[in-house]
Amino acid sequence: MGKITYKSISFGDRIPKICVPVVGRSREEVLAQSAAISREAERIAALGLREAPVAEIIEFRADYFDHVTNQTELTELLKELREAHPDRLLLFTYRSEEEGGELRHDRAENMIDDISAWAMVSGYIDLIDIELMSGNYRVVRNATKARDLGIGVVMSYHDFENTPHNEEMEGLLWDMEQLGGDILKIAVTPKNHFDVDRVLELTEDVTRGHSNHPISRPVVLISMTDAGTVTRTACAKTGSAFTFANVGMGSAPGQLSLEELVRRL
User: Fold this and answer.
1) At what angle do helices 166-178 and 193-207 cross, to 10 degrees?
2) Exposure winner among 135, 238, 244, 259, fewest CB in 10 A?
């Protein structure tokens, strides 16, 4: 598995990075949660539980933000997040309703391309999430734009009902790489502990080059819900490039608190 670096933070080196989502609806809520993440990371760092930084990535979940369709307000908020976390990577995510995003009843769903473009040209983000299932043309167009602007692409796929067969998940990772993904992320839902074990084994096979479809990019494989928690904490063994924790409100089933994740890692 290849290694890729943004700023001084590397992925694919078998040292799992931690991503913490920000999910506020208003500017005030977003900035309050952002500040809480900084305080909590500093508190945990003081405990000496982890040599690496406590939270290398801040994910701004734009699908929660009520004013996401206002370019000026969105850009200003990204600027404030950038200033609050100068040494962390800022990941921009607009999760669609089809893949578990916040339900909306306005025009934002029809403006995802515009919203993503605003984030990319703002100059404030380091990474952007692009959903594989949004269509090959859209995926390639947005991935190319991100690359041209020096922004890394976290290409993602989510299944909130099942865990696909291993061959299918390998194929999804292969498609993500071919379509321009820099970090390839799959999050699935287990029916039983065998599904969780399959995700663990597949992650290790892929990251050690033992899969049927050789993958050269860093990968993130997650089995969601409490049953799949081990996939969030065994990253050093499996090679999963980063994992998610929450400070306050989480963004997916099975996320641990930041302190609990650091202790388990």
Assistant:
1) 40
2) 135
Please identify which of the residues 17, 85, 145, 185 carries the catalytic annotation.
185
Model pLDDT for residues 217-235, shown as the tens digit of each residue: 999 999 998 899 999 999 9
Segment 75-79 shows an average pLDDT of 98
Rg over CA atoms, the chain? 17
Helices (H), 85-228: 112-121, 136-148, 166-178, 193-207
Q: Is 185 a catalytic residue?
A: yes
CA 23/CA 34 separation, integer angstroms: 9
Q: In terms of Cα–Cα distance, which of 148, 180, 69 is closest to 115?
A: 69
Q: What is the DSSP letter of 69?
A: T
In sequence order, the 6+-apart residues with CB closer than 8 A to the CB of 180 are: 139, 140, 143, 144, 146, 147, 153, 155
What tokens were used for 253?
Answer: 């089933």
Distances (CA, A) of 116 to 19, 86, 151, 173, 252: 20, 21, 12, 22, 21
Told to judge if 158 belongs to the known catalytic residues of this protein, a careful annotator would answer yes
Q: By the 8 A CB rule, do 58 and 20 touch?
A: yes
Give kind and range of the element (H or E) at residue 81.
helix 71-84
The amino acid at residue 211 is S
Helix (H, G, I), strand (E, B) or coil at 17: strand
Q: Which of 158, 165, 193, 213 is catalytic?
A: 158
- Rounded CA-CA distance 265/245 in Å is 11
Contact 205, 197 (CB under 8 A): no
